[in-house]
Amino acid sequence: MILTQCAVCATELGRTLGKKCGRCSTRYCGAECQVQHWKDGGHDTLCKKIKKAGGAEQYNANKKYAAAVAVAAEKCAEDTKGQTCYICTQALHWKTKEGLVRGCSCRGTAGFAHVSCLAEQAKILMDEAEYNNLDSKVKRWMRWHTCGLCEQDYHGVVYCALGWACWKTYLGRPETDQARCLAMNVLGNGLSEARHDEEALSVYEADLATKRRLGASEDSILVTQTCIANLHARLGRNEQASNMLRDVYSGRVRLNGEEHEETVIAALNYASSLGGLKRFEEARSLLRRIIPVARRGLGENNDITLRVKFTYALALYNDTGATLDDLRESVATLEETERTARRVLGGAHPIVQASERSLENARAALRAREGDVDALRDAVAALGK
């Protein structure tokens, strides 16, 4: 269950506390809130509707999905103006009347679609793979979060809408069903992409509790622990996040070895947390070891390699003790990262936009430091006259 709070007073119920409506499974902390919701909260008129939709969890997912699609279409409206869906070839969806989105790395006239079309396409591919027991299940599942044209992950509000689409599709399956487990992860990632951090944290914690109860693999548990730690960092709980990410990195080295992609990602996350604690020298030391590993194993154009270099540049110029050479290296690294990311991922991608902003800050810091050096040089020269 993703619904973990009382529908009336929002008391946190976790997975097992409180009680549920016997008809529609809406959750409450106790009988008092349930009675209040029936009398004053409109539940008497909604109960049958919720049950007809498949219960409280399904009803909630359907509503969240519709809202997320509307947000995504509005966010993408300027970019999609005058375009048509590459799947159904229409500007407005024939049934939902939703607008178009594009939240990947496609450019030009490519990649425009309706969230409903993307979700239906992903579902059909997975249904076919499951029915025929195909070996391509993992690759097909990626269509829930990866563009079928540019093969890059969706981002921002588009990923969030697809996360709700995925979850509402599979939430009715048993907890042990692989698609349901994966759908919870896609939802958490989508909420995180859209910066709905508290909601994402709730999803990941429910996911982790389920995995531990079902005896999931260490790899799967490490993935979810990473997501939880990153959200703690975004919510300002940096010490807690860093400790968790250190343990995840150690776990990845032990499980996968130092040069595995997942270990590189774990190192990146841990280094980012160190930066958040202003432990910049530790972050730089770790990233200097990881950059050549990422280049060798993943390639210069890989988005993970780009993120590693970007994080290294931040650790250079954000340090108040940075030298002039540090600042120059930071600017050069960000220039290279921004240029490569723009060519590979497109100008709208978050890595590109973050690199642009950081490059401006790094250049400003460099100009200020060079100005100080020039002023000191002039003062020394004046004393010698």
TrEMBL record:
Molecular function as annotated in GO: zinc ion binding
Query: Which positions fall inside the MYND-type domain?
Result: 6-47
Name it.
MYND-type domain-containing protein
The answer to whether the entry has keyword Zinc is yes
Say which species the protein is native to: Pelagomonas calceolata
> Any coiled-coil ranges, and where?
324-379
**Entry keyword set:** Coiled coil, Metal-binding, Zinc, Zinc-finger
